[in-house]
Amino acid sequence: MRLAITLMLTALAVPSFAAADDYPKLKPGLWEMTRSTDNARQHPSTSTVCLDASVQKEMFDLANGAMKGMCSKHDFRMAGGRATGDYVCDMGGSRMHSKSTMVMNGDTSYRTEIRTTYDPAFMGMTRLDTVLAARRLGPCKPGQRPGDMTMADGHSFNIRDVMNGNGRK
User: Fold this and answer.
1) 124's torsion region: left (phi>0), alpha (psi -120 to 50) or beta?
2) Residuewise pLDDT in 10s, the chain (169 residues)
3) Cα separation values, 97 from 32, 50, 107, 122, 153, Å
């Protein structure tokens, strides 16, 4: 489960950010994140997460830590509400080259478009186009703790608990 969470957070954060201090700050609250790809085997998925500033920083720190061991290139540029990234990483014996563009709408929504190529093919893919869209829904639900995440399949857990080895809620 810990590996799955690390890979999920890396997939969400790696294409968009290079250094933990550079990431755009999102307004605390309940966020809905939708991921879609051009791969017919991967269906669009939507998850929610209760964010505060500390959880957001921990997510990006975790993703950046994973990047350091895998990526030989991570160029990131941010100007105003627009960020671009260019990354080259080793994943499972394949060279992944990912270019992304993120457009922020203040601190309450964003859209990231990512084009990734793999050489040799990774899990049968040589290219993958992904769109990540996120928006703040409002305050976290009563009883939610920062880091509480609900995946598209309905499974819930707290990101901090999983990363600390405590498992699902």
Assistant:
1) left
2) 333 444 444 444 444 444 445 667 899 999 999 999 998 788 899 999 999 999 988 887 777 777 777 889 988 788 888 989 899 999 888 999 999 999 999 999 999 999 999 999 998 899 999 999 999 999 999 999 999 999 999 999 998 888 777 754 4
3) 27, 31, 28, 12, 29
**Residue 153 DSSP code:** T
Alpha carbon of residue 92 to chain centroid: 19
User: Residue 109 burial (CB < 10 Å; 0-12/13-18/19+)?
Assistant: middle
Question: Dihedral, CA atoms, 136, 138, 142, 148, nearest 10 degrees?
Answer: 10
Domain boundaries, the chain: 2-136+153-163
List strand residue ranges (DSSP E) for the chain, in order: 29-37, 45-51, 71-79, 82-91, 94-105, 109-122, 125-138, 148-150, 156-158
Q: Which two tokens stand for residue 88?
A: 């080259």
Max Cα distance, the chain (Å): 47
Q: What is the pTM of this model?
A: 0.80
In sequence order, the β-bridge partners of residue 45 are 35
